[in-house]
Amino acid sequence: MKLSQRIGGLRPTAVNSILAEVRALQAQGRELVSLMRGEPDLKTPAHIVAAAEAALRAGRTSYPDNRGEMPLREAVALKLERDNGVRYDPGSEILVTTGATFGIYSALSAVLDPGDEVIVPDPVYDAYLSPIRLAGGVPKLAASRIEGGRFQITREALEAVRTPATRAILLNTPWNPTGAVLSPNELAVVAGFVRDHDLWLISDEIYEAITYDGHRHVSPVAAIPDLRGRTILVNSLSKTYAMTGWRVGYCAAPAEVIRAMFLVLQQSSRGPATFIQDASAVALRESQACVAEMTAEYTRRRSRVIEALAGIRGCRVIAPEGGFFAMLDCREMGQASDAIRKGLLEEHGVVVVNGSAYGPSGEGTLRVSFASGGAALERGLDRLRAGLSA
Ligand SMILES: Cc1ncc(COP(=O)(O)O)c(C=O)c1O
Global pTM? Predict the structure, then answer.
């Protein structure tokens, strides 16, 4: 039987492709250590779990309001004002989604027509590409360069891939996989570009809480208020509260866009479960001490990664400014990053992602995750160091 041609444009994510190799080796009895996934090993804080339990026991099991339960939308509005300094109306400008993944999908579906192009800075979180295609769009990778020890995007690189069909830019800061946190100056460059070419800005801010060394996430709309009319802010509770499996996120945008995204949501996911939404409101409203504790833990792990991987010939750690991935710049080793990754996997039993999986600008680099810590991180770092020094 014939399947839709649309499916031909979709690809498994880099992590899933590598997982298939990992499972094949494990089936042969190999013991592997993974520094691959963006899955925190920290537990969802107890007060959030307790709120979900209480909501379940209170019978909060019916269909939710498909825009998001009002108490959660109000909590999102409160959070956006408290943490990001931006104001959105919970009645008309906020949509609760099944993770940032569905927020991105509904945003793209709301603004793209067939053939519209979406610019994504390269290296790109590869799970952006298939949803762009699914929404009828065409991804265009804007090259970045490692300069001053970090990945940088420039106006020239954005202009180089812009065409009359460009409709939107999909930005992710803190930036997975590079670890860069866009500075107000860099945001101003993006703002000038989207303004001059009348584009939508889809701003994925999922790693906002996890920043280091005085770098701080600034929401593009807070930095440049006149972006508000053309920006769709996407966020989720997955990383901030170690709630990846709860599948809850939210978007904020002008009412007319939220109405369009709501239509997409109503005809597909219909949002996260009601009791999950109750607990999510508690997460956003109550003390944020748990977030500070988790960020302190990631800060310790980041220091270990930088320390453990320092001084390997031909490799340099790009110290992440945010998120829980470090990029290793191995360009001086003169080998394709996929070949280095395969060697590390097959000969040294450690799993990382080759930078080329995220686009041509990532070639020569490896992405190392410290979302998981403890003994597994230490063992993985030992193997990585041994493998890269061999
Ligand atoms: C940049 C980025 N956006 C979105 C997601 C997915 O988020 P969610 O779990 O909220 O769907 C991830 C997960 O790794 C991510 O790295």
Answer: 0.97
